[in-house]
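Example record used in the benchmark description.
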Amino acid sequence: MRPAADEVLHFSQDPTITRFVPHVAATAKETEAYVWAVGADRAPDYWFPRDTPRAMAWVVPGTTDADRDRIIGAGAGRRVHAVEYGALEAMRTVELYGYRLPAAPFRSIGHALVATEPVEPLGPAERVGDLFALHEAAGIQLRVLPDLWPFWDEVVGSTLGYSGIRLRYARPAAPPGDRARSR
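Model output (structure tokens):
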């Protein structure tokens, strides 16, 4: 699912939303009430069930060949998303929907887009479909790991672009000494 030039997207497991009203999310760092959305460039970050912890990395202009080959893998594309094994069943069975929203009321904060006024979708929710197939069609490597933290440590110390979403739901990190041995 990709937005048109004058659209942004909101992903949800609720297909019945008819109006998005600004709110302060329980986990938000921001204190202002927002309606949240993303553009086409960040839509793949949300091709997951809501509470799925995921670590994502992609090639940016300053990425070194060594970091790309070490973390994404030689010949493995320009982007990788990593999840834990425990996420696979939810990814296979979730009913995820995308809402197309008018881009005009939104402004950028970080990687997200926010509006401070209520926003009505441009049409009904659209079923996103098979999340594995979406990743494949977009050329995004989907990596499944027993523990996200060693991968995350490598990503944040690299020259790749990256994002971690819902990492608070990931399995607890092993103590640093154990983490080094598990790499």
